[in-house]
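Example for reference:
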Amino acid sequence: MKDIIKLTAVLTIISVAAALIIALAYVKTKGTIEDGQKKAQETALDMVVPAGSVLTEKKGDGSLKPAQYWEASKGDDQFYIFKISSTGYSSDIIYLVSVDTEGLVYGMTIMQQAETPGLGSRVQEVISKEYIWNGLFSKAEKGNTWFTEQFSGLNVNNEIGIDKSMGEWHKLDGKSKDALKAKNSITAITGSTISTRAVTKGLEVKARGYLKAIRG
């Protein structure tokens, strides 16, 4: 009985000590983490609007209008930026998208995802020589995230099609890409239609609904 009590006391002390260490580490790193998240968001915002745009943060009701969104203006051009979360195959895919007043996508960037490595995770794939296979057999497009780039010019007010017959967007010629845009369509990530569809649905439902609410 005494041994059990001693063991319980030791385990309790260890558990309390571990909890205190974790809490202390959180307090110490909280500011750094928040600063990192803020900088990442600022970088993402800059990526989806024209250079030199004036950004203004807005607050909505969290239902029809998102709780947080941004307006960007440059000259006579105006854009709305939404942070959207869509359920993919194994995670929530969180991304920023900017649309103009007519619903045309200007830019998009994936901020967070934990999809299947080599499949759904390719929503963030950059085609460059760092990817051996693509570097050998495809033209390098360093700096371009091909999956999100193909949404540029599509209209969220219309259904966004997924064409699985043409191969992946980064391997297509200019004529084929233009044909896809004319159909308001994208290509799917090979073997990952669920992740692809998650992003398009987020645009068709959330971005479209937010824009409609803001525009009245």
